[in-house]
Design goal:
209 residues
């Protein structure tokens, strides 16, 4: 059976058109919007580039907050309950911690490439979003007690009494706590202003014998 050159040419053109169509997917509203968004972003970057700073007040505020977490600055804790208002208050140390904050990394790599969270500068791994909180109070005897709070309940690790006049829970003068927080001496905390990876042994690879 003879196949004319004209037939071969038509077949080749048909195959080429199929390849072209396979390589260029049909245009969608999402793809058009994405291209328009990229072009708008490029124009903004050229005409109004982002500013660059050597120092920022926001970063300085965050550094101060990190120091307060590490050093345990004096604080005052007030508990507010939805629909009720203020129910408890006391002098405290540092910031409260979201319940679920961990001392060790809660995730680990088994197989494959995944991104793991890094430890915070103050030495903990806070959870992404938790309503419950671990806080503390300085008791009249000088002890630092812990309490757990969430929207539905509060558990104190020390004695409290309800005052019907103030409608608040209060710490009586003889309140004690079996589990206490040891206050860290500021001299044991070194809020270094600079980190030199070349001088820090932790960044060097261990020798393999």
């Amino acid at each position: 059976m003879k196949i004319s050159r004209r037939s071969l040419g038509l077949a080749g053109a048909f195959v080429a058109s199929l390849v072209f169509l396979a390589g260029c997917p049909a245009e969608s509203g999402d793809s058009v919007d994405r291209v328009a968004s990229d072009q708008a972003s490029l124009r903004f970057s050229r005409n109004q580039p982002m500013h660059s700073y050597d120092f920022t007040q926001a970063r300085q505020n965050m550094l101060a907050a990190q120091d307060a977490l590490a050093l345990g600055s004096n604080s005052f804790t007030v508990q507010m309950m939805p629909g009720i208002g203020r129910t408890f208050e006391c002098p405290s140390v540092g910031f409260p911690l979201p319940f679920g904050t961990q001392l060790t990394n809660p995730e680990k790599a088994i197989n494959g490439s995944i991104t793991l969270p890094q430890i915070e500068p103050y030495g903990l791994f806070p959870p992404a979003d938790v309503a419950a909180t671990l806080a503390n109070c300085i008791l009249p005897n000088g002890q630092i007690g812990i309490f757990y709070s969430e929207p539905d309940l509060t558990t104190f690790m020390f004695d409290v009494r309800y005052n019907p006049e103030t409608k608040m829970y209060e710490i009586p003068p003889n309140s004690t706590s079996k589990i206490t927080i040891k206050r860290l001496e500021p001299s044991k905390v070194d809020p270094r202003e600079e980190f030199d990876a070349g001088k820090d042994d932790r960044t060097k690879c261990p020798k393999v014998s």
